[in-house]
């Protein structure tokens, strides 16, 4: 017998989501993620992955993953602090620190885990965290878990940040105050104003934390948003994911040796969740080596981003204020956005709709993620389909 209370809770809430068009049906891919994907037999051009550099199915990474699996096995066998630290994990962390130009780095099993581990490890209930209102869910959860007072800052509003930093510090209520922000915001593609942020942080002695999930591999010739602005010595915690541009899975935090030593004894996913697989670790090392030695993929990504943006703009679409390859196509009305995305898929272009609550009400959008793996021919097809569907649904004239 299962719990009646649980069953009615589940049935009621699932039905509510379905009634309100908020139930997310999961699409199942038949094969690898790439510029083109197959979803249950239907081939579509994929404009919705975070596989920025096309590494998720790259032969060079696959070879390294297989070699490492042969040497170390498929699983690490334990958490890092017991005996789940293999030489490949140490090598990965050394590589990450070199790539980020920091003293040290620690790897986690995901970007989500990195935030859930690092934020509560450094912030406590005696502290305050100033957090951009559009920060990622893993930042929000990590902040909550820390028990610190969370103060929301208007999106990219430096006056609001300054005022709230001043108030928090002057109040004398907190031992430490942190400002935490995405490096690149995933829904709009705008870039954190790090030079101003660092200036404010210096003025008020704020700890700075940049979640560069969408900046790593994309900004700063691959090394990230902090590197893009040349601020490696001014940001305390640089967090990133290994699942987007790097194409594999995992996350990390880079910073001073003291910081990393502390995270390795206090960040709970490091202590209580099994390490990254050896295969994933080796594939990540290969991706970092490729990014360190060549900007070919990075340059193709930016070139494709510019091409798509110019094309959509020329057609009359509102592509917002993105400063990166992330290309939102803002439709507005939620229902229309969903219909638009559905019609794109029927025409062979897979670009997911993003609506409230992920973005503010009335700013529904179809988000396009061009990658280094797309060809110009594929992007031309995408533009032709956008023109057809845009005219059909009166989004453009
Ligand atoms: N931070 C940001 C800003 C993200 O966009 C994401 C991924 N959606 C994450 C963290 C989590 O990364 P991962 O997928 O590696 O867990």
UniProtKB/TrEMBL annotation:
Database matches in InterPro entries: Aminotrans_II_pyridoxalP_BS, Aminotransferase_I/II_large, AON_synthase_class-II, AONS_Archaea/Firmicutes, PyrdxlP-dep_Trfase, PyrdxlP-dep_Trfase_major, PyrdxlP-dep_Trfase_small
PROSITE patterns linked: AA_TRANSFER_CLASS_2
Domain Aminotransferase class I/classII large: 42-383
Requisite cofactors: pyridoxal 5'-phosphate
Keywords, sorted A to Z: Pyridoxal phosphate, Transferase
Family recorded in the similarity comment: Belongs to the class-II pyridoxal-phosphate-dependent aminotransferase family.
Assembly and oligomerization: Homodimer.
PANTHER family linked: CLASS II AMINOTRANSFERASE/8-AMINO-7-OXONONANOATE SYNTHASE, LD36009P
Designated name of the protein: Glycine C-acetyltransferase
Organism of this sequence: Alkalibacterium iburiense
